[in-house]
Fold each of these.
Amino acid sequence: MKRLCLMFLFVCLFLSSCSFSSNVSDHKCYYISDSTLTEEAEVVETVGLLSAECTEITNADVSKYSNNSVTIYYPLFNDEFVDGIIKGAIDSHLNGLSSDVVACFDFFVSSGQGGISIIFYDSTSVSSSLRNVFSVTFSDDYSKTLSLESFIDAKSPTDHVVKTVDKLYGGEGAFKHNKEIVFYTDPKGITVIDTLGQRFSIPKESFNGRASRLVTVGKDYNPVQQNEKVIALTFDDGPNYKTTSYLLSILKEKGVKATFFTVGYNIPGNEYLLRRMIDHGCDVGIHSYAHQNFNTMTYEQVKEDIEKCGELIKNATDIAPYLVRAPFGNVSEEIVSEKEYYFINWCVDPYDWTAETPEEVYEHVINHARSGSIVLMHDLYSNSCDATALIIDKLKADGWRFVTVSEMFDMKNNSPSGKIYYGLGY
Ligand SMILES: [Zn+2]
């Protein structure tokens, strides 16, 4: 919570274009003409890094580095790792400055795409050339620093992303070789700052689904260890105010996490159920917007449908979903190759929607479960919910652990997307 408050504070600081510099209002705003852009890059704003309006900040959470000629203000996140990264970035920038530089650096914080960026800029320089701008970006779970390649698949970056970055950095190969690219994340995509200090946005859409997905995992994320007996229960077709709510109370009571593949048209009015899932550490994934067979739809229609459901989940939970279960498990290779998503099918199917008693579902699952199984059920049937309680009691007693899909495949640590997952090891 503290971190959230801090982030909020920094975003506020950014929005109000704060600066410590008294002469910041002298700075000019500059405009970038469309003709300087490559085809699909976009200007973020027409205003330069240093827009007018300044407010004095006195806040304990902002610190300051100062020697005789250079002063750098920087945020404190009260996180050892992140504060260390920020100090490291400041040190390496200082090392690159010639000794006659006199400068005062201010900063702003921007976030999006699973990353948080701190952008330092020389608030005393009108030209704000590249040597006077530097940035550091880390993942929003505070676990690692991120390069531009972390957001854009370095193995197959889209042509125009490469061309844009190459052009901004004055030569072919800049994208590939220049690790010093100044960029930051924002809600719309990635912004790259060129050698003149001008900013160019690479919109999220233009990654063309090839951006490496930064996986936000549930609470108490605990990936599968070797030789552990694990199983992932997955529930499709909800949320439903009655049965999903009932199932969540069972999961909570038994201290078990599961994975929900929700249908977009069921979400409006039931957003609180998605938040309950997230609060309980469950994974929430996409099960399409309209539950149509993807194999009867065009590529564009499928993408649109997945995104529509994803938006609803994102709006309800603040977390962009990346797990997808296609209705009926039907999905084309072309769609599966979208690296933005992981496609999750199953290997145990008790046909719970035809079951007349919870015991039927229970028997099937117990008889077919192997370690690493993904079980398909539906949170629309009270039989399925009651069966879940029985399954949990039995398997727990036998030493099994119930994991979410992201834990099963340790998705946070880069398990590959672009294929269909059926279970761990099969
Ligand atoms: Zn379904």
Note: Residues 236-237, 287, 291, 327 surround zinc ion (CB under 6 Å).
Amino acid sequence: MWKSWPSIKSKPVTMEFEIPTNRTHKFWDYLEAGEFRTTRCNSCGTLTFPPVADCVNCTDSDIEWVELDGRGEVAAFTHVIVRPTSFQERPPYTIVIADLTDGLKILAWIEGSEMTEVEVGMKVQLKAGKTVDGEPSYWFVPE
Ligand SMILES: [Zn+2]
């Protein structure tokens, strides 16, 4: 039998973190320049996203920044109608996971298409640049 315990409601909680990026900060510099780059290990060739300072496969720190071709196909998507607090000012949006020809799966917003047009297998292109708020970012557009 389900028992309901007495409770009180807390105030809303806002969380904000300082994320150290000293060894991968170039990622945001490249985005601002309109380039989507991530890291590849020069020892074993492992391509990684998000970018890393040390290889996730062999732990070597001999890492190079490579620009991705960025073409791919939608593997999964979701429409976000009920937005988190930080996105309340924006209209509903769609997030996709795409399989890139570069061999990575990337999750990002898709811009430039109606929600009803997004489907699994849709060809997309990864873009980099600044948002309308001037923040470096990346997103997909229909190819
Ligand atoms: Zn490696």
Note: Residues 41, 43-44, 46, 55, 57-58, 60 surround zinc ion (CB under 6 Å).
